[in-house]
Amino acid sequence: MLTYTLRRLLYMVITLWIIVSLTFFLMKLLPGDPFGEAITKLPPESMQILIKQYGLDRPVWEQYLTYMGHVLQGDLGVSYQYPTRSVVNVIQTAFPASFELGIESLIIALIVGLFLGIVAALKHNKAGDYTASIVALIGISIPSFVIGPLLSYYIGVKLRLLPAGLWLGPEYRILPALALSLGTIAILTRMMRASMLEVMNQDFIKTAKSKGLSRKTIVGKHMIRNAILPVVTILGPIAVNVLTGTLVVEKIFSVPGLGNQFATSVLSNDYTLITGLTLFYAGVLVVVMFLTDIAYNLIDPRIRLGKGK
Amino acid sequence: MSKPILEVDNLQVSFKMSAGEVQAVRGVSFTLNKGEVLAIVGESGCGKSVTAQTIMRLVPTPPSYIKNGSVMFDGKHDITKLSESDMEKLRGQEMGMIFQDPMTSLNPTMTIGEQIMEGVRKHQGSSKEKARERAIELLNLVGMSNPVERLSQYPHELSGGMRQRVMIAISLACNPKLLIADEPTTALDVTIQAQIMDLLKDIQEKTGTSIILITHDLGVVAEMAQRVIVMYAGKVIEQGTLNEIFYDPRHPYTWGLLRSVPRLDSDSNSDLASIPGTPPDLFAPPKGCAFAARCPYAMKVCLEKDPEHFTASDTHSAACWLQHPDAPKVERPIEVGVRSNG
Amino acid sequence: MESISKEMFQPAQKTTNAEAIVRPSLNYWADAWRRLRKNKLAMGGLIILVILFLLAIIGPMLTPFSYATQHLKETNLAPSSKYWLGTDDFGRDMWARIWWGTRISLFIGLVAAALDLVVGVLYGSISAYFGGKVDAFMQRFIEIIYSIPYLLIAILLMMVLGSGVTSIILAYAITGWVTMARLVRGQMLVLKEQEFVLAARSLGAKSWRIIAKHLIPNVLGVVVVQITFVVPTAIFVEAFLSFIGLGVKPPLASLGNLLNDGAGVMRYHPHRLLFPTVIFSLILLSFNLLGDGLRDALDPKMRK
Fold this sequence. Notes:
The complex is a heterotrimer. By secondary structure, chain A is an all-alpha fold.
């Protein structure tokens, strides 16, 4: 288990390093003017000063090393777009909204998805199963950037039940979190249903039944407990899904989060902000993947105790 | 002899599938007396496991359903009519079951201790400490070393034989009156098989519980059963005491089964006999005797009519037209009748 | 006991052969097709896909308007007999744009799937075939690629390569092949060790025959199923990138940028969001239904 954790930790570091390097070099290849059209009208001397200030005149490898050094110290540079703000500062202001949206969606998705999956499996081939399967199919076929505008328009604008955008009070959270969680609900429902159906056919369920345990105990202690294990393995990718989903959902609902920042920095070719945000996202995602992986290995005794598999 | 612990009468169990109905058990009747060990033998798919699991109502419904017949347990409960919550009280408490594959029959994410104590706590309402004591006692009974340490171990930490011992401990947790062992040694190594059989025999002697032993291994039968039922295609085709089945078998299928057992005293160069063909499709069982298509002695009547049971003694009967007074006398293959391990 | 005539106890003429196999044996694909046909949802998905493919090809020809021609006096019209699905804010015909968009989205999906197929199957087979150190190294590489969030890489690539169909396909393909490679490798590794391969080998079958007759057909099922999930994923990626402004650039239409434009004006012209949404969701839904059905039909464990 320890060697496994260390190995995974090493992979995580390598992955992060590759992402940092990839981001840096891709950005160097990027066409376009980092200072935007307005600033190109500046006199050449001012341009020179700016280029020097940002280190754009030095060799690429030197820029790369400096950049790596800064990243290691948690310094992601200064935004070209807002020369007075550091990238870290931008992240600090915008991240809380994204984080909250992500966590809320994840919690909704986990509760609803697991519940639907369990119901579908227990009511296999009955109405409950079909309902859950339909919800799952809709969730998979209609991504957040499609359901988002629909929710915003019909519930927010037409019916005026909930705010169609912005991020002020608790009621402003509902629609974006719903739009963001639908796809994840679908994935979790399908996964949990399949996993439950598999566990239900296992011999040890018959053993549990032969002990005279009640249906409730069998479902709770034997089925769900085992069926949830494979679902934990996809929690990492699921969290990734939700977090990247915030990129579009924030735009739809005008949530002042990182996703919105990302969209504006893409439009204005703000190199450092894009790289900084990508790195930040990638970092969060890779760490989440790592943690869920370790968590899974702690939960499953077959792996925790080093045998099996 | 006292009242039987189990009376199965004309039990019929079918599975409803999309392609039609599979008649897995087609009218099985037998009785099991207190303290008796009854073996049910037959090929895979003959309905022996379904019969056994129906006694505990463990076959998932749907797709299965009990079409007909009754199963009287302990002279007072008709299992085919009990509610699910009444069944829960019987399972584990009055009857226990040992399954074929100890690798998959234990919950991989629960400790051995939890799995044994679960039933004890449910049926006897005992405290955690009491249940724990009982679990240690049970692990001792099934011959496990270091029972206290075992309690906190997970199934994957044990060998196959050990796991089967745990299974036996689980099934014995509440001193059931009836123990059903569904091929308890099939998935184990040969040396372990003998140990498990010895253990079962030992436990039967100590506790006096009635046992239904389901197997296709006649060696296992000879070792501990007092009576034997031979099943084929969802029906009982012959039943009798151990001696009657081994020394005076009447049904050609039983002959075939006995001939297919490897023997120490036979010529090592002789081939092991097998029964040619495969069992009939239970979607559409044949009109006459189900074994007729594979039977070297098949007569016209066998294809037309299903034979009833012809009695050979109070305890011995066979469902074969050869037993009819008008049937030609057939020489039984000579190898039959000598038990390999006496 | 009822009497039975003595005649009945004559030896029977065996009419049935006990060794005969009851059901006719079907080959793998015929059997799969038989089961797929029974699956109403999957067949529904297949039919919808065929219709959508046909409309993507002939749809734009059914109207006199081109997807790019602007009619600046007739902007944002609701559906009418002239413009069947209305017009956008440059007065371009939505019917033509939607089917053009469908065409481009499907094209992206199919080409991405083809790239995925080639790279993934090759990588997976090589890794499984050589085994040992080669396999270990190739697996480490996959593990790292796999843990890179592909949408973020796609975003970065799009910025470097510039918007366009080719960039989208590349951006997807660069990380998309990993799942396919893993699947193929896993399947190959299991198959390599199985008895029937050993049996074929011991019967003197040559390596190429084992691969062609035993390995490929058994991997093919998994690959086909995976393809039905790759196509919608690639279409999704296109739409995602278009939605954040990095996809196909107008006047060219794709379902992604139609969705993006529609979302912007939905308050005033809901039809501009509704139609692309329906087509887009139908494509994803149909591929998923078909994929599920294929998985059930091709899974040998499900064979009855």
